[in-house]
């Protein structure tokens, strides 16, 4: 199976894993000609990316070539032919396009059967491979979460839980608007229609204000933005016990010791003294209180970045960068602490419930 890599993955960790596939399938109904998109999940493990055995490669360093070495095994030709079809030579016709000319018929048959359509009704699809092994709680005391894509589904889940809870118990007088935004494509620069570098946040906040208050002016919008606050919540780098030298000694976040404030003088993160102070005050007001750690990259190293600088520069909203500490970021399986995810949710809940009161003085300077 030919694959494309996405973002900066630790590709060596994908080897010797049972992989499933899932994604979006575009279907055109044969009778109505209506075009719809459906989600497909193989549910079964369909592929594996086997390592080359040690007897054929004695190198101490493993750096797979993304084009040559990252092609999972899907099927053998002999068995595939028993199930009905190989692949025909692809012919690009200006008049017609048959998807069977491009993909294995047996693979298409599996997708069609699962989503309830015929092969001929499949127009196209975009699918991703994923670790078929389910997430797990591990450790002597079940204190760790081992899972694919903690970066950044962990932040997404905790913020979603918090705002759902807030919607049931929180402010009902419409004096403020609380929201979360879950963007695509952060790992490749966020420059897409649904990425953080799009117009989505500005457009959404304008629609909220002018939809609720049609008589509002642009000046009202600008004032509202300046009184607002954005938490850029991405995961953070916990100090690795086997590689502690990679962290600045005074700023080495640890698992189970609190949420991380991310700070960078070159604006790779957008935290400043005001946004940092607000987060520290809110964390102290949380019930129970949320401990705060600080992360600053070593001066001889390079850190990643987040959507925080994009958001603050595009719309002018005060922004802070935070994250729950984790290990193995960008591996096929990452690891974080159970307690830190609870801290994450407590912090978000305090933000939704108490930001307007706590921020009044600082945000009106």
Q: How many domains make up the coordinates?
A: 2
CATH architecture assignment name of the largest domain: 3-Layer(aba) Sandwich
What is the CATH third-level topology name of the largest domain? Answer: Aminopeptidase
- Looking across the biggest beta sheet, what order are the strands in? 5-6-13-12-8
Topology:
Layout: E1 18-28, E2 35-41, E3 47-48, H1 77-82, H2 105-115, E4 122-131, E5 136-138, E6 144-147, H3 150-169, H4 200-212, H5 218-226, E7 229-233, E8 236-237, E9 259-262, H6 273-285, E10 292-295, H7 308-315, E11 318-323, E12 325-327, E13 334-337, H8 338-358
Parallel strand pairs: 7-11, 8-12, 9-10
Antiparallel strand pairs: 1-2, 1-3, 1-4, 5-6, 6-13, 9-11, 12-13
Helix pairs in contact: 3-8, 6-8
Provide a short characterization of the protein structure.
The chain has eight helices and 13 strands. It has helices spanning 77-82, 105-115, 150-169, 200-212, 218-226, 273-285, 308-315, 338-358; strands spanning 18-28, 35-41, 47-48, 122-131, 136-138, 144-147, 229-233, 236-237, 259-262, 292-295, 318-323, 325-327, 334-337.
